[in-house]
Amino acid sequence: MKFTAAICLLASYAGLASAAVGCQVEILNVSQASVGSGCVPFDSFANILNTANNAKYAISATRDCGFKVQNGQRLPDGFSLRKAGFC
Hints:
By secondary structure, this protein is an alpha+beta fold. It has a single domain (21-86), classed as Complement Module, domain 1 (Ribbon). The protein has one helix and six strands. The chain has one helix spanning 2-19; strands spanning 22-28, 34-41, 44-50, 55-61, 67-69, 80-86. It has a three-stranded antiparallel sheet with strand order 2-1-6, with no helix packed on it. A three-stranded antiparallel sheet has the order 3-4-5, with no helix packed on it. It comes from Colletotrichum plurivorum. Residues 1-19 form the signal peptide. This is ToxB-like N-terminal ascomycota domain-containing protein. Keywords: Signal.
């Protein structure tokens, strides 16, 4: 029974991921508190607002939700990006 439940859960997760259009990203400050978030389309980028300093960052996402800040920009020291799910 547990095996069947695990398979069903895995299948539903795979279905959710295939229906998603992008990755939800959070900008974290040095205390790991979220100071900005948004949806970044797969294999593309989106401008995400950092409410700590009112700066917008062009964040790109791969199909497996790997994130990076576009060339010419960088997050403040100690800040990071975190995957918060699919969108």
